[in-house]
């Protein structure tokens, strides 16, 4: 076709021929560059090449509809959006397909916002976690220096913006659905969507409906569990066809120390780039003792805007209680009133969960236990003094992972028989890309900028899983979304780097209502041995069993479907087991496993809570061929032992010695 084209242009003037020839040569160079460096490059990890993983740009984001083409350039450092060249990020995105935006219902928007450009930073951060390339020397204001990469480096990515500036920063349903349909038509393989809200019935939840349409087309949908933990029953994005991700800590942190005048030393966390003179102590004051006139104690103790008296605070380190204003904003209030430093302390409800922030003054966030000692010291002397050390990057922290305190917990309030979250992944102090021109914090007068940012949330955990899904999709292109989800869940770990059970921030042993199947274990997910597969008809039968009528099912799927009336809610072939009320009598759970590895004989091992009797029939499954399926049944009943009520936990593990296919079991004993 190219040869024919050039034969036709030979009759034109020589200058035109030369110009077209050089254009052809230039495009050919780009083509070979892309083929060599993108399409044929290999990953530097066990999963191998991934050509098409899509990340929906955190769905920050929905629209009237817009499209911005991104042309591939002969350098991974730049992309072209429309007719402008923007340095989207220094190194991170190696192959950016395009960016699209959807903004129905927002009226007139300025050119700044009527675009797929990221004006907040959330989308850039999450997108780079999923698909960012290898970047040496990444750091934030000189801290956390090292090489970073996304979960699926060199993936081809695209962004879909559906959330817009509004009083509630809302992502309206038409935009969400439009973005899903666009992604489906664009032929993506993975959708990562780090947004959520109050759980809704599946047919009335736009994200759930859009996700179902994607799964119908073989696309894996990964979403965040929410940041409303540790309160039970707060998990969002609870549809069984969505892979729902909670957040955990990693073994790296940003640590500083608070030293009191009595020589006691407390470990805190901060990401403040400003430091106090080494070992210089300053007067320490409780924010309540620095309150301005006509200000309530409750406002002053949390360092609310205008609550502090500069005459009382100037030159001192102030202790502010967590709550009210955002933590970084407390620092701005304190600095404006003349404070040289700030301690953020937890109340009893917040416990010992501390978070790292890019503070505008020297600061440290300390636990509730340590705050008791700090207040006791302040009250014990007329001249309390303190020093805040500079921040250092701490590695090999133990224990880790720990379930993040903010990570939303189960049970699933829409359908308790589906355990949510499904998995946890790194979501605390995650260093990733950040757009140019946007300050690191929303604090007034904070103009600090960086090509990278450290942030926390299930929004950061979600793209970790999306990146892994992209790699698994490349390794096993014929696997269904349910099979990929099963591989990730059944190979998850429930122990930390000390080989002890994973704990929460309070140091108590965590359970599946906090971490689902456990913490993601990518290398094992590559070879799960067996998977729990689920078809679209299975999902529709699940909805029928929940009482959905034809009209409600049509809101989710366009498929003409006749319900199997014998199908029960508990028959959905989910990789976890959740029994809603064992007080009502014995429960039988039907499951089916598919062999995706070498032939083998798997034996069932059951970890049973004292109050429950669990029987697996049969206890041995013999697989002789790839894709062979075997069914089994799990019978649960009250054992008559123990006195615990509420939730108890166990597990079923199918093992052939080399592989361990683990299924968490959650049982609600009833009250």
TrEMBL record:
Subtilisin-like protease fibronectin type-III domain boundaries: 571-667
Alphabetically ordered keywords of this record: Apoplast, Glycoprotein, Hydrolase, Protease, Serine protease, Signal
Residue span, Peptidase S8/S53 domain: 110-500
Localization per Swiss-Prot or TrEMBL: Secreted, Extracellular space, Apoplast
Pfam short name (any one): PA
Superkingdom as given in the UniProt entry: Eukaryota
GO biological process: proteolysis; response to symbiotic fungus
Stretches assigned to the PA domain: 299-371
Gene3D superfamilies: 2.60.40.2310, 3.50.30.30, Peptidase S8/S53 domain (3.40.50.200)
Gene Ontology CC, one term: apoplast
Keyword Transmembrane helix in record: no
Gene Ontology MF, one: serine-type endopeptidase activity
Family matches, as InterPro entries: PA_dom_sf, PA_domain, Peptidase_S8/S53_dom, Peptidase_S8/S53_dom_sf, Peptidase_S8_Ser-AS, Peptidase_S8_subtilisin-rel, SBT, Subtilisin-like_FN3
Family: Belongs to the peptidase S8 family.
Biological function: Required for arbuscular mycorrhiza (AM) development during AM symbiosis with AM fungi (e.g. Glomeromycota intraradices).
Protein name: Uncharacterized protein
């Amino acid at each position: 076709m190219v040869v024919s084209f050039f034969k036709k242009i030979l009759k034109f003037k020589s200058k035109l021929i030369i110009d077209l020839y050089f254009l052809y040569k230039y495009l050919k160079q780009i083509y070979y560059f892309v083929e060599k460096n993108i399409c044929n490059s290999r990953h530097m990890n066990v999963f191998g090449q991934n050509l098409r993983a899509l990340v929906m740009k955190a769905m920050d984001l929905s629209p009237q509809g817009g499209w911005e083409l991104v042309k591939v350039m002969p350098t991974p450092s730049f992309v072209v959006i429309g007719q402008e060249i923007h340095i989207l990020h220094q190194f991170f995105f190696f192959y950016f397909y395009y960016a699209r935006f959807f903004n129905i219902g927002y009226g007139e928007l300025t050119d700044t916002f009527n675009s797929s450009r990221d004006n907040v930073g959330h989308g850039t951060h999450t997108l780079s976690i999923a698909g960012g390339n290898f970047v040496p020397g990444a750091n934030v204001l000189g801290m956390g220096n090292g090489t970073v990469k996304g979960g699926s480096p060199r993936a081809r990515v695209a962004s879909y913006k559906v959330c817009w500036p509004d009083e509630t920063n809302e992502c309206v349903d038409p935009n969400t659905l439009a973005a899903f349909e666009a992604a489906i038509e664009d032929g993506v393989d993975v959708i990562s969507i780090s947004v959520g809200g109050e759980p809704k019935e599946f047919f009335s939840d736009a994200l759930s409906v859009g996700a179902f349409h994607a799964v119908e087309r073989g696309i894996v949908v990964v979403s965040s569990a929410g940041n409303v933990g540790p309160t039970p029953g707060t998990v969002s994005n609870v549809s069984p066809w969505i892979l729902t991700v909670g957040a955990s800590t990693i073994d790296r942190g940003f640590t500083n120390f608070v030293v009191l005048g009595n020589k006691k030393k407390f470990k805190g966390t901060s990401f403040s780039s400003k430091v106090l003179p080494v070992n210089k102590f300053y007067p320490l004051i409780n924010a309540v003792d620095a309150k301005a006139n006509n200000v309530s104690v409750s406002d002053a103790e949390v360092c609310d805007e205008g609550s502090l008296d500069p005459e009382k605070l100037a030159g001192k380190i102030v202790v502010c209680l967590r709550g009210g204003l955002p933590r970084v904003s407390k620092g701005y209030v304190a600095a404006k009133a003349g404070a040289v430093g700030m301690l953020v302390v937890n109340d009893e409800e917040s416990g010992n969960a501390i978070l790292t922030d890019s503070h505008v003054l020297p600061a440290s966030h300390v636990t509730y236990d340590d705050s008791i000692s700090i207040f006791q010291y302040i009250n014990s002397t007329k001249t309390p003094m303190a020093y805040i050390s500079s921040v250092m990057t701490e590695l090999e922290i133990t224990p880790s992972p720990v379930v993040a305190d903010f990570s939303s917990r189960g049970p699933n309030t829409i359908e308790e028989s589906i355990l949510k979250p499904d998995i946890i992944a790194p979501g605390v102090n995650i260093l990733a890309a950040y757009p140019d021109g946007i300050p690191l914090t929303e604090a007034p007068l904070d103009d600090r900028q960086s090509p990278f940012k450290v942030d926390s949330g299930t929004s950061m955990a979600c793209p970790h899983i999306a990146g892994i899904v992209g790699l698994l999709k490349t390794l096993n292109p014929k696997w269904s979304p349910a099979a990929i989800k099963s591989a990730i869940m059944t190979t998850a770990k429930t122990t930390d780097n000390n080989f002890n059970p994973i704990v929460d921030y309070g140091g108590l042993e965590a359970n599946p209502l906090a971490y689902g199947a456990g913490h993601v274990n990518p290398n094992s997910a590559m070879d799960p041995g067996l998977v729990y597969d689920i078809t679209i008809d299975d999902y529709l039968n699940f909805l029928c069993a929940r009482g959905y009528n034809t009209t409600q099912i049509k809101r989710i799927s366009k498929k003409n479907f006749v319900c199997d009336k014998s199908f029960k809610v508990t028959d959905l072939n989910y990789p976890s087991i959740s029994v809603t009320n064992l007080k009502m009598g014995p429960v039988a759970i039907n499951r089916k496993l598919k062999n995706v590895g070498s032939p083998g004989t798997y034996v069932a091992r059951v970890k049973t809570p004292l109050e429950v009797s669990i029987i697996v029939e049969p206890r041995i499954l013999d697989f002789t061929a790839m894709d062979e399926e075997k069914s089994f049944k799990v019978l649960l009943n009250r054992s008559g032992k123990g006195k615990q009520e509420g939730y108890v936990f166990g597990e079923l593990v199918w093992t052939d010695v080399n592989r361990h296919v683990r299924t968490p079991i959650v049982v609600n004993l009833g009250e």
